Amino acid sequence: MLTPLSIPSPPVEWQGLNITAWLSSTFGWNLPFTIDIRTYALCILVGIVLAIIIASRRLTRRGAEPGVILDIVLWCVPLGIIGARVWHVLTHPGDYFYEGADPWEVVRIWNGGIAIFGSLVGGAVGAWIGCRLSGIRFWTFADAIAPAMLVAQAAGRFGNYFNHELFGQPTTLPWGLEIEFSNPAFPAGLPEGTLFHPTFLYEIIWNLLGVAVLLLLERKLTLQWGKLWGVYLIWYGLGRSYFETIRVDPSEIIFGVRSNVWGAWLAILVGIVIIVVQTRRHKGLEPSPYRPGAEWVPPSAEVDSSNTYTDEELEGEEAPAATENETIEPSATSEVGAKS
């Protein structure tokens, strides 16, 4: 008898490490506070680092100062996290606003609960502030980070896998995801051993495929002025609008549609508007990744003369030697000596 294939969920112990308990059991150190390292958080951090590296290299190739992206992400990341939390809370009000609820639970992001669409809104605000301060064109930065965002989102989805969460409807497909019957998110009424759609895997594949599509379109069509960012919004919105419909986790329903599906549709609409508006406004290529008057000048371009000398070369010399096309005029002293 053949055993059906499936994707096993990782052990629950892999969801994180209690540093306080580990230090106590290993070294006998009893800390007065608790330190937890969550695998989900590590996946998000890995995604952020990958996005920064990729976008930085893309900006540098456009002519931006190496490392300037750090001046922008210092605003993007915190505002993106705040936006992600706000979006989640607003789309799951029943989890935070009820009689007897702890009001501080709204800000306890370490207990879980962030939304990508909120991070896009908050991150965009942070990007605009960072670009204004650094002199980088906002749309240049947006195009540079567009494929990097898909890489970051793919890395972050592994966190859902480790957390045994946000899986899809039951399936008999050979790549069905195993979820333990004791999981609070296990749908009531289904028998133990039911397999579910691995929506985390679907989105990872969709996002990585999107990276290839964006890079190909950028090369073939020379998409600038934010148009590549528009393509990113459309691509991600299309995939998310489907994946969201097969998930079984609870969500706020607006006019019969999950709130995140509305967010995906909004992303598609915004992406289309950006492409149409920017195509009409900008016919040519971006002249520079910097706004006029804020251009960065490489150190090598600040040297006026091509002839430079080191201290060692000039040591003991009163003047540079004459070239073979130059003559040294005799000084007044030498003329007097010649007459006498």
Question: What does it look like?
Answer:
The chain has one domain. The radius of gyration is 29 Å and the shape is globular. It is built from 10 helices and 6 strands. The strands form 3 sheets. It has a two-stranded antiparallel ribbon with strand order 1-2. It has helices at 19-27, 39-62, 69-91, 116-134, 138-162, 199-221, 227-243, 259-281, 311-314, 332-339; strands at residues 16-18, 36-38, 177-178, 195-196, 253-254, 257-258. It is mainly α and 340 residues long.
Poorly predicted ranges (pLDDT <50, ≥5 residues)? 303-311, 313-340
- How many strand segments? 6
The fraction of residues in strands falls at under 5%
Q: Helix/strand-derived class?
A: mainly alpha
Termini separation (Å)? 121 Å
Order of helices and strands: EHEHHHHEEHHEEHHH
- What Rg is obtained from the alpha carbons, in whole angstroms? 29 Å
Number of helices: 10
For the sheet with most strands, the description reads: 2 strands, antiparallel
Helix content: 40-55%
